[in-house]
Design brief:
Arc Repressor Mutant, subunit A; disordered C terminus; three-stranded antiparallel beta sheet; alpha+beta; 14% strand; 224 residues; 10 helices
Length: 224
């Protein structure tokens, strides 16, 4: 046991000299096999990098994580959440209005487009096109709906609808709450001759804290 303790102390000393190590050079320095060094790291407590395919290691006592739960040593990135996959999911879940691949790449200092696409296919994220970019949202529908509302407010010029048109929209919503935003716009155009953009209706709902839920059609039962 004392030999193991002495080796772990040696590991700590090496990381005090150099905060990040790859497993091969570390094993060579300690004169132990790679599997043995992995066990020592588990004993000491460690993080593996989310950059460079997780090839770099640091002790859990070393990183001083920022508000995004990230820490960088030179260009090597570490996250409280471990892997790049988990880091991306957490970053998007915590974002008030979702995030684009470019913004995430700038924050994480690495390319992540292909991983984001894969996470969407796996149902771990959602995405929608806004202009020329895709914005990624949380997989949880409630969180994603809130993120979309915030994004709509942030990206829409602050020109509220006239009060009389806002009233017409809200009255129609109370009368027929199952209609989508597009259907509400269509009803207003046909019945009142008022043309309203879908984005303006969505913004109105966001400003008033209203959540739009569209009912699914229930199949009609056949006659017995």
């Amino acid at each position: 046991m004392s030999t193991v303790n002495n080796t772990i102390e040696h590991v700590v000393e090496l990381f005090s000299e150099q905060p990040c190590w790859m497993i091969g050079p570390l094993a060579k320095k300690l004169q132990y096999s790679v599997p043995s060094v992995r066990r020592f790291l588990v004993e000491a407590g460690y993080f593996s990098s989310f950059t460079d395919n997780g090839k770099w290691y640091t002790l859990s006592s070393i990183p001083e994580f920022d508000n995004d739960d990230l820490w960088f040593s030179r260009n090597i990135g570490f996250s409280r959440h471990g892997s790049l996959t988990n880091t991306l999911i957490n970053a998007i879940n915590q974002s008030p209005s979702g995030a684009s691949a470019d913004n995430l790449g700038q924050t994480l200092h690495c390319r992540c487009h292909s991983i984001l696409v894969r996470l969407c296919r796996q149902g771990k994220l959602q995405r929608e096109r806004y202009g020329r970019s895709y914005i990624y949202f949380a997989a949880d529908s409630n969180i994603a709906d809130t993120q979309r509302q915030v994004l709509e407010i942030e990206s829409t010029p602050s020109s509220p609808l006239p009060a009389e048109i806002a009233v017409l929209i809200l009255v129609e919503f109370i009368r027929t709450p199952h209609l989508s935003f597009a259907q509400l716009a269509g009803v207003l155009k046909r019945s009142k001759g008022v043309v309203v953009q879908i984005s303006n209706i969505r913004l109105l709902f966001a400003q008033h804290g209203l959540k739009k839920t569209i009912r699914k059609a229930v199949p009609k039962r056949g006659k017995r």
